[in-house]
Write a structure and sequence with these properties.
By secondary structure, the chain is of the alpha/beta class. It contains nine helices and 13 strands. InterPro entries: PfkB_dom, Ribo/fructo_kinase, Ribokinase, Ribokinase-like.
Amino acid sequence: MAARCLVRGSINVDEFFQVKDIVRPGETISSDHLVKRPGGKGANQAVALAHAGAIVDLIGAVGQDGIWVRDELKEAGVVVEGVSVDEESTGRAIIQVTELGENSIVLYKGANYVSLPPHAIHPNTTHILLQNEIPLPATIEYLARGSSSKISTIFNPSPMPTPEELRVFPWHQLTWLIVNSGEALDLCKALRLEVPQTCASASAVDVAKPLLSRLSSHMPTTNLVCTLAADGVLAQFTLLGESVPVHLPAAKLQGTTRDTTGAGDCFAGYMVAGLMRLKGQKATAADYVSVLKRCTQAAGMCVEKRGALASIPLGADVDVRLNQL
């Protein structure tokens, strides 16, 4: 039977406002365009997994106003039997997107914070992917269930939990951690790890390397992946006993559209889909680098289109682009 991934995460209605510049405090601006699309980190990552070729079960909740979102997720290939319909309204993301593709996001929790009974984990589940747009106790519950069942667990702590929550988080139950460079720095500070001083001219890679080293010392059994936007990705595979981070450059972009919304979720979903393909194999560092190359390419293609969930590329298209390199 085929491997499956369980995603316990958020489901939103994303409202995109096209703006010239991100609004400043006390300022009123006009938007040139408004569009509503399915979104939420859980939904985005689940669709990325499905587009990458994986079987994915999404656990979450929407309101009556979000049933259309659940329907679109199903059309995208996500198994949505675990998506409940609640009296609370569906979660919202108010997203400003500039002409240059930068974004600013305001979240409303809505049904994402509804208490859900524990959902049965399919016996073929090999990976559980978690984020932080749902109550943290729910995340920790599924992390514990996965760890106790020898299921690989992946956590993308965005938005970041509080320093107090991070200090008591069960890192020993986590197989993979995905953060960006800012989150890596915040996590080091929250865990009271020494943050090395770097010169202003240091590259993003040189800044991130000591952060991963500090985090690895705190969570020695967790594999670390740090995304660096235009500077690529840095990874440290502790399951192979690797002590030196591996750096991959970012994908080369095509076209003129640049919208970073959802690129991190696209990366996470494609990464987990790649890990699922390696499950049960005697994987090497080269195998994991190949996984990262594919998800880096997918994230780059995501940036080339507007939107979050709608911009996640199909696996076949990603592979065509990779074969052209």
